C-alpha cells in the first residue's frame, strides 16, 4: 500500500523479483460482482494477470466500512494460500483497502513462502484485516517493506491532491506528484470510492460492446422521461430534437412531467401536468419506476428540458457503450459549466478535478467514470430492477434531486459514466430567461445564441453568406434569406400583442425632433424593449453579409430607427417615394404575398425596377441615400408586414 502520511515501519529489506505473468497470482476479496470488481478484473486481464476472487457469493460478516468483519478476508486469504503452498516461485499480489491507523493494508505483494509466515497470535474472527497485518499482532518479524514512496501501490484517501492522471500516446497512468512516481496499483479506498477514474480510449476495448440489431423492431424499448421543472426557452426546439432522434418511435415510450405534451407516434405517453402538483424528486421517481415495473423496458432515458440534444444518434451511441448509467457531455455555450463533476469533496460536494477542463473542451476524449451527472442520462432497466431497485432514488438527506440520485447510485456501488466521444449538444442558460413577453425566446439571442440561431435564422443563411443564394433583382439591391417562418410569425405576433401602432402622421414623439417626413404605421423595436437584441442580430447576421456584398465597407451596425411596418388597404396601403436616412437599409418581408396579402412590393424609381413578390423571411438590402430613391407599392388586400432597419445613419 502507499500513503505518504503513514508512519514508517522498520526498514525490512525489499526483494526485487523478475517475474512473468505466469508466476504472478492476483488475489482479492469480493463477495459480489460489483462494477468496481468488474473493472478491476478488466484492468488485470489487460496485462494478462491471473485473478482469483475470494468470497464471491458469501455474506459479509461485518460492516465493510469498519474494521469489524475483516477477519473474513484473512480466513479467505489463508485458505487460498494453502492451495498454492507448493509453488515456490509464485508471487502473490493481494489487494484490499487501506485502513487509517498506521497498519499495513490496501495491497501487498510477495513470494508465497513469505505469506505463509504471517501467523496471527490471537483469534482474528472479529479483528480488522489491517490489525492482522500490524507488526505488533504478528508472531514474528517477516520480510515486509513499506512502499511509502508509492512506486507500486497508491492509496487515494488523503492523497487526492498528490495524484494526477498522466496521458501519453493514448494511454493513461497515475502520477504521484509528491515522489514523482508512477504507481502500478491504484486503490480508491475510503471516501475516494466515489471519485473518478478514466475508462479512456486506451482501455475502451476492455468493455465488450454488443452491436445493436439492424432491424427497428429488434431494438431495445426505451422509456424517455422529459422534465420541465422551470420556465425554459426553446421548448418547441427541444421536442423537435427528440423527434429527430434516430430511433424507431414504436420502440419509445414517453413520460413528461409538466405542461407540455408531444406524443402521437410514440408507443405510449404518460403526462404529469402542473395541476397534479408532483414535486421534482417525486416525478423523477415516478418516471424511473415506470421503467422498473415494466419488464419490457430495456433502458430509461431521462432528459431535462434545458438540454439541447443536437446529435440525432445520441440514444444509439449511449446504448452501444453498454453501461448501467451513462450520460453524454453537455456544456453551456462559452462556459465551463457542464452536466458532470470530475471529483467530489469529502463532504460530497463539487470539487475541481485536474482534467475537468480538458474533458469539457474535448482535448481529452473518452468514456469517464465520474461521481456526479445531471440533466441527461441513460440507465439500464435491468439495473433499475436490481442494484437500483429502491423506489426512492431521488431523495437523500437534504440534497436536491440530482445530488440525491447520484448519492444513492454511489451508495449501491454502481458506476456513473460520462462520454465526450461525440458532440451531443449543449445546456441552455436559464439565468436571465424573461417570461414577460408573448414570445420570450426572441429575447434569448445573448443567453442562448446557438438555439436562437436554429429557431430564428433561415436554414439557407450560411449558403447566402457563401454567395450561393444571393440575388440582385435591381442594381445594388441584394436579396437573400435571413429569417425562418417562425421568426417572422413571432415578431408580427409580438407587435400585434403590444398593439400600440403609430397613427402614420408626421408628428411622432418617438423620434428626435418629433417630426417624421415620410411616416408609416409602425412600432419601433425599442417600444417592446427589443432594440438591444435587434442590434445583436444586425451585428451577427447582417454585418457579415454587408461586408461581402459591399467590399471595402465595414458597418458598425448602428441604427437610429428599427421598426415593423403594417400596410393595409383601409389604413396605409403604400408609401410615397423617399430616401432613407441610412447608409444602407434592411427590409425583411414578414409574411407571404398571395396568401396573407395581395399587392405590395418596392419600386426603385431611378432604375424603374420593382420587386413585387417579396419572399417571406428574405431581406432586401440596399443603399439608403442618394442613389436608391424608392416607394412602397400599394397593398390591395389583406395585411402586409415588413421589418425595417436604417443602418449606419
Automatic annotation (TrEMBL):
Stretches assigned to the Fe2OG dioxygenase domain: 558-649
Cofactor: Fe(2+); L-ascorbate
Membrane topology reported for the UniProt record: Peripheral membrane protein
InterPro entries, alphabetized: Collagen_mod_GT25, GT_PLOD, IPNS-like_FE2OG_OXY, Nucleotide-diphossugar_trans, Oxoglu/Fe-dep_dioxygenase_dom, Pro_4_hyd_alph, Procol_lys_dOase
EC code: 1.14.11.4
Broad enzyme group: oxidoreductase
Gene3D superfamilies: q2cbj1_9rhob like domain
Catalytic reaction annotation: L-lysyl-[collagen] + 2-oxoglutarate + O2 = (5R)-5-hydroxy-L-lysyl-[collagen] + succinate + CO2
GO cellular component, one term: rough endoplasmic reticulum membrane
Keyword flag Ligase: no
Highest taxon in the source lineage: Eukaryota
Keywords: Dioxygenase, Endoplasmic reticulum, Glycoprotein, Iron, Membrane, Metal-binding, Oxidoreductase, Signal, Vitamin C
The keyword Translocase belongs to this UniProt entry's keyword annotation: no
Assembly notes: Homodimer. Identified in a complex with P3H3 and P3H4.
Reported function: Part of a complex composed of PLOD1, P3H3 and P3H4 that catalyzes hydroxylation of lysine residues in collagen alpha chains and is required for normal assembly and cross-linkling of collagen fibrils. Forms hydroxylysine residues in -Xaa-Lys-Gly- sequences in collagens. These hydroxylysines serve as sites of attachment for carbohydrate units and are essential for the stability of the intermolecular collagen cross-links.
Protein name: Procollagen-lysine,2-oxoglutarate 5-dioxygenase 1
Source organism of this protein record: Equus asinus asinus
Gene that encodes it: PLOD1
Amino acid at each position: 500500500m502507499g500513503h505518504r502520511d503513514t508512519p514508517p515501519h522498520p526498514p525490512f529489506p525489499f526483494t526485487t523479483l523478475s517475474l512473468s505473468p505466469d508466476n504472478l497470482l492476483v488475489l482479492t476479496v469480493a463477495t459480489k460482482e460489483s462494477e468496481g470488481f468488474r473493472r478491476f478484473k478488466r484492468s488485470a486481464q489487460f496485462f494478462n494477470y491471473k485473478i482469483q476472487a475470494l468470497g464471491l457469493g458469501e455474506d459479509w460478516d461485518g460492516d465493510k466500512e469498519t474494521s469489524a468483519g475483516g477477519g473474513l478476508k484473512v480466513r479467505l486469504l489463508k485458505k487460498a494460500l494453502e492451495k498454492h503452498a507448493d509453488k515456490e516461485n509464485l508471487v502473490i499480489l493481494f489487494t484490499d483497502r487501506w485502513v487509517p491507523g498506521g497498519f499495513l493494508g490496501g495491497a501487498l505483494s510477495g513470494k508465497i513462502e513469505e505469506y505463509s509466515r504471517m501467523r496471527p497470535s490471537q483469534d482474528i474472527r472479529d479483528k480488522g484485516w489491517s490489525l492482522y497485518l500490524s507488526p505488533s499482532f504478528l508472531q514474528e518479524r517477516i520480510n515486509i517493506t513499506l512502499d511509502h514512496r508509492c512506486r507500486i501501490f497508491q492509496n487515494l484517501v488523503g492523497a487526492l491532491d498528490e495524484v494526477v492522471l498522466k496521458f501519453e500516446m493514448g494511454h493513461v497512468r497515475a502520477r504521484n506528484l509528491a515522489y514523482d512516481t508512477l504507481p502500478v496499483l491504484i486503490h480508491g479506498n475510503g471516501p475516494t470510492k466515489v471519485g473518478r477514474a478514466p475508462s479512456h480510449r486506451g482501455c475502451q476495448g476492455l468493455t465488450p460492446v454488443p452491436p445493436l440489431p439492424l432491424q427497428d423492431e429488434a431494438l431495445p424499448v426505451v422509456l424517455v422521461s422529459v422534465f420541465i421543472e422551470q420556465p425554459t426557452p426553446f421548448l418547441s426546439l427541444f421536442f423537435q430534437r427528440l423527434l429527430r432522434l434516430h430511433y424507431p418511435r414504436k420502440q419509445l415510450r414517453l413520460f413528461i412531467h409538466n405542461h407540455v405534451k408531444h406524443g402521437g407516434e410514440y408507443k405510449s405517453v404518460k403526462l404529469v401536468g402542473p395541476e397534479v402538483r408532483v414535486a421534482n424528486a417525486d416525478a423523477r421517481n415516478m418516471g424511473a419506476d415506470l421503467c422498473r415495473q415494466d419488464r419490457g423496458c430495456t433502458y430509461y432515458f431521462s432528459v431535462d428540458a434545458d438540454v439541447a440534444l443536437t446529435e440525432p444518434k445520441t440514444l444509439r451511441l449511449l446504448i452501444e457503450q453498454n453501461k448501467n448509467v451513462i450520460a453524454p457531455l453537455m456544456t453551456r455555450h462559452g462556459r465551463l459549466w457542464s452536466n458532470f463533476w470530475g471529483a467530489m469533496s469529502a463532504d460530497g460536494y463539487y470539487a475541481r478535478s485536474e482534467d475537468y477542463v480538458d474533458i469539457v473542451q474535448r482535448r481529452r476524449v473518452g468514456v469517464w467514470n465520474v461521481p456526479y451527472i445531471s440533466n441527461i442520462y441513460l440507465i439500464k432497466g435491468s439495473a433499475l430492477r436490481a442494484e437500483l431497485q429502491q423506489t426512492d432514488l431521488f431523495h437523500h438527506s437534504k440534497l436536491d434531486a440530482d445530488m440525491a440520485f447520484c448519492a444513492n447510485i454511489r451508495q449501491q456501488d454502481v458506476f456513473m459514466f460520462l462520454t465526450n466521444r461525440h458532440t451531443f449538444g449543449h445546456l441552455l442558460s436559464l439565468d436571465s430567461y424573461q417570461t414577460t413577453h408573448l414570445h420570450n425566446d426572441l429575447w434569448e439571442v445573448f443567453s442562448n445564441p446557438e438555439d436562437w440561431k436554429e429557431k430564428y435564422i433561415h436554414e439557407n443563411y450560411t449558403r447566402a453568406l457563401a454567395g450561393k443564394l444571393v440575388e440582385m433583382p435591381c442594381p445594388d439591391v441584394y436579396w437573400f434569406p435571413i429569417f425562418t417562418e417562425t421568426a417572422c410569425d413571432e415578431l408580427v405576433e409580438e407587435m400585434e400583442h403590444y398593439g400600440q401602432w403609430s397613427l402614420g402622421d408626421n408628428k411622432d414623439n418617438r423620434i428626435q425632433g418629433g417630426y417624421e417626413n415620410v411616416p408609416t404605421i409602425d412600432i419601433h423595436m425599442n417600444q417592446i424593449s427589443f432594440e438591444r437584441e435587434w442590434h445583436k442580430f444586425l451585428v451577427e447576421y447582417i454585418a457579415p453579409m454587408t461586408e461581402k456584398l459591399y467590399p471595402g465597407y465595414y458597418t458598425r451596425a448602428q441604427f437610429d430607427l428599427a421598426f415593423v411596418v403594417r400596410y393595409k388597404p383601409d389604413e396605409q396601403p403604400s408609401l410615397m417615394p423617399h430616401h432613407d436616412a441610412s447608409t444602407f437599409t434592411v427590409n425583411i418581408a414578414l409574411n407571404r404575398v398571395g396568401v396573407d396579402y395581395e399587392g405590395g412590393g418596392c419600386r426603385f424609381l431611378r432604375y424603374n425596377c420593382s420587386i413585387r413578390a417579396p419572399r417571406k423571411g428574405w431581406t432586401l438590402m440596399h443603399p439608403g441615400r442618394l442613389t436608391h430613391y424608392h416607394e412602397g407599392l400599394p397593398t390591395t388586400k389583406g395585411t402586409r408586414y415588413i421589418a425595417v432597419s436604417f443602418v449606419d445613419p
